[in-house]
Amino acid sequence: MHASELKLPKIPGVTYEGLYNGSGDRDFGPRVRGNSGVIDLLIPQSAAIHKVLVPQVDAIGNDIAGIRHPFVEAPASTLLGWNTRTAEFGGPDLCDLLGSMIPLPKTRAEAQARGDPRPSLEELYGTHEGYVRKVTEAARRLQEERLMLPEDVELVIQEAEAADVLH
């Protein structure tokens, strides 16, 4: 789907305007091939505009498509593979070199106070044990589908148990 169609939740403090550098391929004249040659057109003509495609996201803001890691399937945060630049560095254009991690609110009251439309940790899991149970279920499902090794499943479960989610 095109970047402008992304249905990212309106997370407080996160700016997404679908801006990107789509300048595309440029034609510098007939004597330029690849990245070498003699430039005849100092102001190049546009040969093709880059089309930026992104996966759609769920209500938390995490990618829907692909194999979802247990920490995406049972999230404690919105995990984005991109970030936006600050104003002094050309923001709010996309800065795709750095991702983002935006923690979910702990309670519905906290979410409402911040104007955060995402579900809270309490709504998703109830307790820390509920969170660990959901992570465990997601990890075991991946193991059953032969997408995760047993030793990695155990590590993910240990990480979930040690996490500061609803403690």
Structure characterization notes:
The structure is a single chain. Strand 2 and strand 3 form a beta hairpin. The protein starts with 24 loop residues before the first strand and ends in a 5-residue tail after the last helix. A two-stranded antiparallel ribbon has the order 1-4. Strands 2-3 form a two-stranded antiparallel sheet. A two-stranded antiparallel ribbon has the order 5-8. The mean pLDDT is 90. It has 167 residues and is an alpha+beta fold. It is built from five helices and eight strands. The protein is elongated and about 65 Å long. Helix 4 packs antiparallel against helix 5.
Briefly say what this structure is.
This protein is an alpha+beta fold. The protein has five helices and eight strands.
The proportion of residues in beta strands is 5-15%
Cα distance, first to last residue?
Answer: 38 Å
Spans of at least 5 consecutive residues whose pLDDT stays below 50 are: none
The gyration radius over C-alpha positions equals 21 Å
Q: What integer is the average pLDDT?
A: 90
Outline type: elongated
Strand order of the largest sheet: 1-4
> What percentage of residues falls in helices of 4 or more residues?
25-40%
Structural class, from secondary structure content? alpha+beta
Element string (H = helix, E = strand)? EEEEHEEEEHHHH
Number of helices: 5
Major sheet details: 2 strands, antiparallel
**Count of DSSP strands:** 8
